Amino acid sequence: xxxxxxKRKHRKNTVLLYGNHxxxxxxxxxxxxxxxxxxxxFWIQQLFTASEWLFHxxxxxxxxxxxxxxxxxxxxxxxxxxxxxxxxxxANMAKAINSLWKKDKRPFTFEPNSNGFDHYxxxxxxxxxxxxxxxxxxxxxxxxxxxKQIVGHTRVKEIxxxxxxxxxxxxxxxxxxxxxxxx
Length: 183
Prior knowledge:
The structure is a single chain. The chain is α/β, with parallel strands linked by helices. It has one domain (2-167). Helices cover 25% and strands 13% of the residues. The strands form two sheets. Strands 3-4-5-7-6 form a five-stranded mixed sheet. The N and C termini lie far apart (34 Å).
């Protein structure tokens, strides 16, 4: 509720993206992860439904230099779910990923990606809401380019960059923040 209220007050300066823990409360999604709050699920679902218009989607581009997304996009996931998308420029990828999200959330769930491989996200086939840094860095969609992905799915002690992936999920460990400078 605090995040949604913050977005309401700072609409122009805040981009709100969905993450894996939000999925449990969205209509049509029936998977429950370890942080599912059964006691408050009804109210959380109501909040998400009433606030859907505040969310940008699951991906956001900053100029041509950054793709901001919960866990990151691997080459393998992109080729599986967005094979017709030729340009991987951040703005183009954010648009394609958000369009897919609006049409079909199944490619973003853990379920279709869990058959026969790692159940913690350490596989390049996991979605942009679930893949872990090791797999993302190994199969980074932007490998060999100057584009960086900014992700927050996996906790780190401090903001760090590895193989073009900037990991920022450290707020419970530090007050450090990452500032993107745009030309």
